[in-house]
Specification:
CATH superfamily of the largest domain: Hypothetical protein, domain 2
Order of helices and strands: HHHHHHHHHHEHHEE
Strand content: under 5%
CATH class of the largest domain: Mainly Alpha
Oligomer: single chain
Distance between the termini: 22 Å
Structural class: mainly alpha
């Protein structure tokens, strides 16, 4: 939930989500539509589907036990190198090296002061040397808090990263239209024609809807559109 989303928006959503789905089994057995309804308002709805699919995979392939090994974690839908490291550290307190924005900020500020472009491999080599292997979770908590503070001071510019890509604006984007469609369908099912009529002059509607259907977030039964049941 925290990926690309601010903490103050996440907290109430996280509390509601974990109250509804307190276990991997509860999440896996829920309809995707219910998961998307609780996720509604966070954006990047594919994250909710990945999470739902990961819970189903944990139940089906790992006997209901969420994997702890980083290589196995990467088999879960939507989990890449960085996310697998973060899960290993924060959920299971394992001394893994992983890099995200706040971690980069700290290392830029202290080790790469010349402003040259920095590759994550350079940061990873330093992290390996300084990582507190007995208390990795607390170590990364500290890095996250410190990185947040440095950003507020204008230090450790993220544009130093070779991996930096400026996020495209939400306003006017296809992503914005996808979110608008999901929000409407979270309230009720819609006739295709009725939903399309709301966006008659918006050329983003049809490609956004096609993308949602292709990603398995939206389904249709006859002329009715609905969040995937």
């Amino acid at each position: 939930m925290l990926q690309q989303t601010q903490v103050d928006r996440v907290i109430p959503k996280f509390e509601a989500f974990t109250a509804k789905f307190p276990t991997v089994e509860a999440l896996a057995s829920a309809p995707l539509a219910e998961v998307l309804q609780l996720w509604n308002g966070l954006g990047y709805n594919r994250r909710a589907k990945y999470l739902h699919d990961a819970a189903k995979m944990a139940m089906g392939e790992f006997d209901g036990v969420f994997p702890r090994v980083r290589e196995t974690l990467r088999q879960l839908p939507g989990v890449g190198e960085g996310t697998s490291g973060a899960i290993a550290v924060y959920a299971f307190n394992q001394p893994e090296v992983f890099i995200e924005t706040n971690v980069r900020t700290v290392f830029f500020h202290h080790f790469f002061t010349e402003g040259d472009k920095v590759d994550d491999r350079e940061i990873a080599a330093l992290l390996e040397k300084v990582l507190d292997k007995e208390n990795p979770r607390e170590f990364y908590w500290a890095l996250m808090d410190y990185g947040t503070w440095l950003k507020k001071q204008g230090a450790g510019k993220i544009t130093q990263s070779r991996h930096y890509k400026k996020q495209s604006p939400l306003k006017g984007s296809l992503r914005e239209m996808r979110g608008m469609i999901v929000r409407l369908l979270a309230e009720k099912d819609y006739d295709v024609s009725a939903l399309e009529a709301r966006y008659t002059h918006d050329e983003r509607f049809l490609p956004a809807l096609a993308g949602l259907e292709r990603d398995g977030l939206v389904g249709r039964m006859g002329a009715k559109l609905h969040l995937t049941k």
